[in-house]
Structure formats: structure tokens, C-alpha cells
Amino acid sequence: MDPGSPQGQLLAHVLDNEPQLFDAAVEATLDRLCDEIDDAESASNGVIDVTNDDGDGNAADRAAPKKGGELVLFRRIQEMRAMERRSGVQDVMYAQILQKFMTIGVDMLPPLDDTTLIMRGVDLNQLTKGVHSVEALEMVKEHLLGMLGPEASTAYSNTMVRMSKLQAAQMYAASIMFGYFLRRADKRFSLDRAMGTLPMNPMESAAALEALFNSASAMDSMDEADVPFAGASEFPGSSGPTFDVTSNSTDDDAATATAAGAGAAGGGSTTLKQYIQSFDQQALSDTARIVSLEGVVLAERQTGALFGSVEDLAMEMKEALESGGVEINSADELMSRVQEVVGAGKVKTLTVPVATQRRIVLEAVAFGSFLRDVESGVDARDGRLLTPAPSAGRGREPPGLIGGAA
Question: The whole model's pTM is what?
Fold first, then answer.
């Protein structure tokens, strides 16, 4: 992906030629962008305030920018500058992602244009252990198996797989989204664990419930025993429960303490997967959504840089599926039809070894994780640098898989 802004070109040059100065160059670039935002806000406030005469005799001069044509032009200039800043922020973020790939010693994939693609092997450990926490690695493995099927377990398989470029692009985009989601969830998991607020795992929950049940049962038993105990002198030979007067607790207290202990230890052995499974639908949706418009655009641009326009590929697939005049009524029929048009060469395709498929998926997951890292860093630097992504619709997010990998 070619950095188009001056900031992006400068950072790309520094990263290639003087990597030791890269972090300082990023800070300087973000400082400059923040200064531009300050200037833009000051100018906007000036336009808003020009109608107020403060009695200095210069009201006419200050009111000049409020003329209709000039005000429209001013606002248009401000919009153009804001677009340039957004482009600059995107290029800064992308350069930081490139740096992270360089740090783990992995060259990012080139544009995938050839119908048969065999690339130099990459140590996949660098795309996994070098990127994700121990807790997240198991979920990355599950995602890989979900994308590629059982063949994914063979790291260096030479089996060739043919798929449409649309399927490959959607697989890549879905994996970016997964990596982004996983990083957000993992950070939240680590914070809750550090604060001791993790939910209990199923075994701990069961133990706590059992302890509370035993506690309630003990209390009921004691209540039932109160009657004969209170009137023991009236019924010769009757005996009530005995208490150790040297102790300040009863069996009920012990059961309550057990339950409290289980609750205090709650979450101690909760896994990341169990933690995510505890999310409600709203929490899942919020965690999976890319926070900034800059992040959404970077995910789209990266996918497009590798596979071409996803919209064009989708239109090509749609036309190919409709060309046979066959009505499609189920997911199985769609999958079968996709395989037919791919086999007949009616759409752009890629033929890659399973090992290369694994690399494509794992790189995309790493890209999504790094995207969240740099987005968080920019937001921490100054939240005004990022544009909030729409929270309602998901139209600008990368599309999901259609038809799977054929």
C-alpha cells in the first residue's frame, strides 16, 4: 500500500533508511498534526465569533469572513485540510504497522496477482508467538482451522488449493477483523485479570453455587431444629443440637466462608475463550467493531492492495453466478455453484499451497492485531487525531466470507 501523504512518504523513507529514528519521526509527525488541529479549531472559533462586536471599533474587519461566499470557501478549505490530516494519520498508522512486521522479522505479502502463487516460506512462529499472548494463541489456531479446515494442521503441506480471488480477499478481510477483535478482547481480559474482576469459569461457578446451596441447607436445618431445642425441658429425653460455646462460628458460617472464598478466587483459572464466551451480544458487537474510520480504511486498503477491489471482485462473482440461470436457494447450492464458476475459470482465481494459505490468514490476523495497537497509541496521543467510525451499520467494514475457500 503506497503512502500517498507527505507524512507517509517521509516515514517510509525513515523506516527504510534510518529505522532508529522512526519513533521520533512518528512523534514529530503526530505533534505537527495536533498543531494543525489546534489551528483549525482556532480558525473555526474565529469565524463563529466574528458577529460579536467587542467595542474595539474593528467589527467590520472582523465580520469580513462571514460573507456567504467567503464562509463557504473557508469551510471547504477546512474540510480539505481535515481530509489531508486523516490521510496523514492513516499513513502514520500504516507505517507503524510496517515497523511491527519488521520487528518480528516478517516481510509482508506482495500483491497476489498470479493465478498460481508459490512464495518463499516464512517461519509461522514469528506470525504467532511473536504477535499474540499465550492466552490468545489457542483462539488463533481455532480461527485458522475454521478458515482452512483440517488441512490447516499440516504446516508445510504442498497440496495446491484453487479459490476465487474474492474468496481469498474475504478470508483475508475476515482474519483482519478477527485479529483486531482478539487484541481488544485480550487487552480487556488482561485488565480484568489484573484487577481481579474476571468472571468465574464454569467449574468455579458450580463450586460457588454448591457452597451457597450447602449454606442455605445448613440454615434451613438450623431453623427446623430451633423448635425442639427451645422446648427441650418440656419433652423429657429430647435433645437439641449442641454448640461449641468456645467458637464464634457455626457450620452455616463455614459454608458461607467457602462460598465467599470461591467468589474471591473467581476468574483465577478463566481462559480467554471462556472470558469472551461470557460477553453478551452487545459486548461482542462493540468489541468486534473497528473504533476509528482510519482503522476501517486501512483494513480495506490493505485487502485491496493484495487482491484488488473487493467490490469489483464481488460484482464479477455475482455476474458469473447469475450467468447459468440456475436459481440458488440454500448455502449448499451457493457453495456448489461457486465451485463450478471457479473450476470453469469464470472468475479471477488464485492457486496456492496450503502452507501459503496459512501464511495469508496468520498475516491478516497479525495485521488486525497491530492495527488495534497503533490505533490505541494514536488515540492515547490525542483522541482528536482519529475519526469515530459509524456505530450503526457495518457497511464500511471488510465483508465476511462468502462460500468459504473452495
Answer: 0.75
